[in-house]
Amino acid sequence: MKAHSGEVGVFVRIRPTANFSQDIIECLPDGQTVNIHHKKDTGKPLCPRKIQRSSWSFRLEGVLQDVSQEEVYTRVCRRVVLGALDGYNGTVLCFGQTGAGKTYTMTGSTESYKQRGIIPRAIQEVFQEVQKRTEHTFSVYLSYLEIYNETLVDLLASLQSSAHPSPRSMVISEEPGRGVFIRGLSLHPVHSEEEALNLLFEGEMNRVIGSHALNRNSSRSHCIFTLHLESRSRTLSDAKYVTSKLNLVDLAGSERLGKTGSEGQMFKEAMYINKSLSFLEQAILALADRRRDHVPFRQTKLTHALKDSLGGNCNTVLVANIYGEASKTEETLSTLRFASRMKCIRTNPAVNEHMDPAAQIKKLKKDVQMLKEELSFGNTLVNRPSVPYDPLSEAQLAEIDSQVQRYLEGSLKEISIISVSQVRALFAKFKLAVHRGQEQKVNARLRQTYNLGEEDRRADTPAVKEWDTRGSTEEDEAGSFEVSHKNTQRPSSTRAKTKKSKDKQSQSKRQGEESPVSKKRSDSASKPKLNTVQSPEREQELQEPDTESQEPQESQPNGKEPFHPDSTLTKAEAFDDFKMGRGSKLNRILQENKAVLLERRSLHRQLTDKVNAVKREIDCTAATMQQYKETRGGQGRYSEPDDTLLNQLRELKALYRQRYEVLHDIKAEINYCQHLVDQCRVRLLSEFEKWYKKYSLVPEEDLETSMDNTLDQVSLPECDDNQLPPESSSSESFHNARYRMLRRRNTWSLCVTPEQRSSSSGSRQRTLPQIPPVS
Ligand code: ADP
Ligand code: MG
């Protein structure tokens, strides 16, 4: 047999006898084949004799005839023993009729050392190997089990110091990682061959004593002698270890019940033996049949106890003991048939490797410590500060938190990286900050939506309400709210302001239309006056109330008055000029933003109509359902029409939610566009104001230079250096002082009436110069 070859090794051992029937049993010279030539008398008494001749040929792994005990061990068992030392489970079984030499093969003669059997030789080999394999440490345990009439007997129970476990307390169990084991069977550690042999003899003795005391035939029981091995490498990881079991099994006689003609206790014994051996055969047949995934191991104690030692991951060898006499031919045939079936079993031996969790933790801790030392050593070599590897303390975490806060606020420019754990903690804090930010945004959005809904209800218009799906029933959901176009409008306070501003605007417009303009420029004659400075809104047909308060009006409350008594150009005309000249770039951006805003608002209106259409359908369906309910009088489950309506309602609601989400996104875009438009407007107006205030009162001779300079500073970074005034500290102080004086004068001009200004300032004020367009 090859080690771990994956097939069950089957040998035939022929018991020597003086009456060996050579004409029946023929052993071929190949040493592997046995031919049985059987003559069977089928004739009836007083009838003519009818002899039936048959021949069978059995080819096995080896035929052991007239071979020594040593050769039997070497050929049959040695490789299985060595496999067990490597971590493979192994089983050697002796099978055959009573008196065929099973016990002789397995245990041998206890009196003669030379005739000792497989078990003592296996024990010897194991301890010799343990001595040789110095790179491993081995632990060896022994157990000796007898199965008699389906009862488990511990043959080494007498060696236990505590109370003997009764046979009933022994149970065959199975655990993942441990395989099959017998709970309650004593397991004896042995450290030498002698200790082990002592236990073997003790067990043999107990077997004989038991058979006498209980009046039972020792050959009527199965005996399983097991060596339990555990090995750990001395050189490699001590967390990994290997276990194996070597089962040496002396089976009970396999003779048939009819043949023995037994009765009483013997009948019972034979019945149990027949049962266990026939189940053993069934299990073997099932193991041999690759299509079968269930093997009936649990049918008897024998097969259950040998479950992980018959097929599967172990090395198995069977010795079929036969009697070489003619009278035993039927039993011989039966034994050989069993042997040839056993030969069909394929096995897949595997090492039983285990991990010791405690040892593994110990080893990993050691590894971690060693790696820390390595890192620390590496840091020292490159003059790096040592890195903390312990988990961050609460104080350190608080410090990281504070660093992240300051970094996000801008008060901390950078965070120096110390260790990987610190980086991880930083990321965690940043993530938290992002989450908080998102949460706040969502809350703000919800609040905004809620406020809008409240106002719209007050205004007696269809309102928008968030879907509250949490815990709402289908019927409740049906009563959702419609979406309003006003969704995108400002809150009421803003709208109130808008109205006021518009009144003011229209009033100003009327006044502006009536007011005379002292000087008409040909290109500005058709343009709106100061009171129409809000023209961007009018031009776009947009309502942009927030910005009105920021428009040039503030410096000219009545909105139509020229900014200077002598001025021939109103502020409105100046603003128009500014938009076409210096402010043209800003104005263009403003117009573009407004166009986008308009487009988004139009889209919002269209979508709102669609959402409201779905809402109306939902209401309609819900009402129909309610009608059904009422007509049914609230009895029983939903009927079929109800189910259809319910599905329809669900689909409509899904559509509503989908459209509502799109609507929500567009609303966010509108808000953003609105913000951009506001920003552009404020910028345009503020730059106009700056420009207007400065250049309206600057002496004519200084105007060209300083106007360009100021405008470039405000809005045109791409200025032409040639246009800048000469930079000298004296001229700068002079211009500053002059500018302050002019500002004061301008303020004064706003506080007095045109008549007062005209009388008090006289010809000191100058007219607004021609505004040069921005190139
Ligand atoms: P079994 O256990 O199968 O019932 P045993 O092993 O008890 O049979 O053998 C019955 C007798 O035959 C014993 O006295 C034993 O010494 C003897 N015997 C069996 N096989 C051999 C053998 N190969 N060589 C010498 N004696 C044998
Ligand atoms: Mg025997």
TrEMBL record:
Entry-linked SUPFAM superfamilies: P-loop containing nucleoside triphosphate hydrolases
Annotated ATP binding sites: G96, Q97, T98, G99, A100, G101, K102, T103
Domain Kinesin motor, residue spans: 7-345
Basic and acidic residues composition-biased segments: 454-473, 503-526
Biased composition (Low complexity): 756-766
Primary location group: cytoplasm
Annotated Acidic residues bias: 542-551
UniProt keywords, alphabetically: ATP-binding, Cell projection, Cilium, Coiled coil, Cytoplasm, Cytoskeleton, Flagellum, Microtubule, Motor protein, Nucleotide-binding, Phosphoprotein
Record Pfam families: KIF9, Kinesin
Sequence ranges of Polar residues compositional bias: 725-734
PROSITE patterns in the cross-refs: KINESIN_MOTOR_1, KINESIN_MOTOR_2
Family affiliation: Belongs to the TRAFAC class myosin-kinesin ATPase superfamily. Kinesin family.
PANTHER family, sorted: CENTROMERE PROTEIN E (PTHR47968), KINESIN FAMILY MEMBER 5A (PTHR47968:SF62)
Name of the protein in its database record: Kinesin-like protein
Organism whose genome encodes this protein: Pagothenia borchgrevinki
The organism's taxonomic lineage, starting at the top: Eukaryota, Metazoa, Chordata, Craniata, Vertebrata
